[in-house]
């Protein structure tokens, strides 16, 4: 006779006067889930707890079943790949035969006993559980070296990358999107299954798992997969790179929607607003060096010695870049360096992320603070459909380049100051670079606006954008 609900405490326990569900976890899953799964029911009534508990018990047992299946698949994958490695190293037919016999035994074990046998006049046909049959076939393909999980070598690939954390995060997201798409579409998540046709289909449907339809964002993930496949090909894990020639069409940006340089009026407004001292110093250094924000906030006291900034390499730069300190910046540098050690930060107001695993650049907080300040003083240029203003902190870099060019400075000298590749083979490859005094002349040729300027932004040609 079943116990009345007033006495039934199966899967229940009291905690601080309230009932909660508790379900035991199998021993082999303790490391993953702990010894028991628990969930509060927020009631002190045993009758109510019994009415609520069965759905919760079902949900918790479902979690255990899913984790158990994942653990089994992980164990099977690991064993299959070990067998594939042994088979690849085998040199005699007898060694290969011994490994193949073991693979056959494991396949039979995974497939299990038939769930039904259909009798025909001349034969009996065993019917196996479809899921077990699929797992057994996948095991056989991996163990025979005919199938390799897409993500098998991905961590080794990530470990040797020398890119920014943010780019590595793009690699991780691209892999996640590909695996999710394969699961949704029933595509085998194996390297051998990713043909050119499958890759093109994924590209066309990437927006369904990436949460974005912007072609630039989607192309970024395609490019990261292409870099991974190139790495795999170099190590003979794949024969071709199906992502190499995949390009999403990018709509041409209208001229009036291109990000641009600040005007003198906008620079003057920014420099006269009520920003923090740190923000005023950042803006002035950016305007008189053309340096990127992250390179500025990452400066140490030792990077501002002997009359020059030592900016860290960025983008395609291979070594640090030395830029003369503009005479108008000497007061700022003197104030920020006095009494400090060479290893101290020039901008302690913008420290690096606390977590070593953070994907954010050090300049994230400074960039956010500048955006808020820029909007507060009315410096903005919003285009319909664009998330980012056409003027932003990078517009200081464009402004410096524009002002240096209008001051008569040569293109290759400006390129050396801001870290762009210098034009042509003669200067770009053979020259050791301009003299430091030439760089100083270029920097000093740019001056901050003396005072309030006209609010007119001028004709489009007055706001020529220097390419990034």
Automatic annotation (TrEMBL):
GO terms for biological process: DNA integration; DNA recombination. Coiled coil: none annotated. Keywords: DNA integration, DNA recombination, DNA-binding. Residues 343-363 are annotated as: Disordered. The keyword Membrane does not apply. InterPro entries: DNA_brk_join_enz, Integrase-like_cat_sf, Integrase_catalytic, Integrase_recombinase_N, Tyrosine_recombinase_XerCD. GO terms for molecular function: DNA binding. Residues 257-444 form the Tyr recombinase domain. Belongs to the 'phage' integrase family. This is Tyr recombinase domain-containing protein. It comes from Blastochloris tepida.
């Amino acid at each position: 006779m079943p116990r009345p609900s007033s006495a039934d405490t199966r899967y229940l326990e009291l905690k601080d006067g309230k009932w909660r569900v508790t379900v035991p976890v199998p021993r082999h899953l303790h490391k993953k889930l702990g010894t028991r799964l628990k969930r509060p029911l927020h009631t002190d009534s045993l009758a109510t707890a019994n009415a609520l508990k069965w759905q919760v018990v079902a949900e918790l047992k479902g979690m255990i079943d899913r984790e158990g299946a994942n653990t089994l698949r992980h164990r099977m994958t690991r064993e299959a790949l070990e067998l594939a490695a042994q088979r690849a190293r085998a040199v005699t037919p007898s060694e290969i035969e011994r490994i193949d016999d073991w693979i056959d035994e494991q396949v039979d074990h995974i497939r299990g006993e038939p769930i039904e046998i259909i009798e025909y006049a001349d034969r009996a046909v065993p019917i196996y559980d479809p899921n077990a049959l699929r797992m057994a076939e996948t095991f056989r393909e991996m163990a025979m070296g005919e199938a390799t999980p897409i993500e098998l070598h991905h961590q080794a690939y990530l470990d040797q990358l020398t890119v920014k954390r943010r780019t590595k995060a793009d690699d991780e997201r691209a892999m996640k999107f590909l695996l999710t798409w394969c699961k949704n579409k029933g595509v085998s998540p194996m390297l051998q299954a990713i043909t050119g046709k499958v890759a093109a289909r994924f590209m066309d449907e990437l927006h369904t798992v990436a949460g974005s339809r912007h072609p630039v964002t989607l192309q970024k993930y395609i490019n990261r997969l292409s870099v991974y496949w190139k790495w795999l090909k170099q190590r003979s894990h794949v024969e071709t790179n199906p992502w190499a020639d995949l390009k999403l069409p990018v709509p041409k940006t209208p001229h009036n929607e291109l990000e641009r340089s600040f005007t003198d009026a906008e620079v003057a407004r920014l420099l006269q607003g009520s920003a923090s001292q740190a923000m005023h110093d950042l803006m002035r250094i950016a305007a008189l060096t053309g340096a990127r924000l992250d390179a500025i906030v990452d400066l140490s006291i030792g990077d501002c010695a002997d009359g020059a900034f030592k900016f860290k390499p960025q983008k395609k730069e291979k070594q640090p870049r030395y830029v003369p300190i503009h005479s108008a910046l000497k007061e700022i540098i003197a104030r920020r360096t006095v009494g400090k050690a060479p290893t101290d930060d020039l901008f302690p107001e913008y420290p690096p992320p606390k977590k070593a695993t953070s994907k954010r650049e050090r300049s994230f907080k400074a960039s956010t603070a500048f955006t808020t300040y820029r909007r507060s003083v009315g410096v903005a240029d919003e285009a319909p459909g664009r998330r980012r203003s056409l003027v932003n902190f990078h517009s200081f870099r464009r402004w410096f380049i524009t002002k240096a060019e209008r001051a008569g400075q040569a293109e290759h000298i400006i390129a050396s100051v801001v870290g762009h590749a210098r034009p042509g083979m003669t200067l770009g490859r053979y020259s050791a670079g301009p003299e430091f005094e030439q760089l100083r002349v270029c920097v000093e040729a740019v001056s901050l606006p003396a005072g309030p300027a006209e609010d007119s932004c001028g004709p489009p040609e007055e706001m020529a954008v220097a390419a990034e």
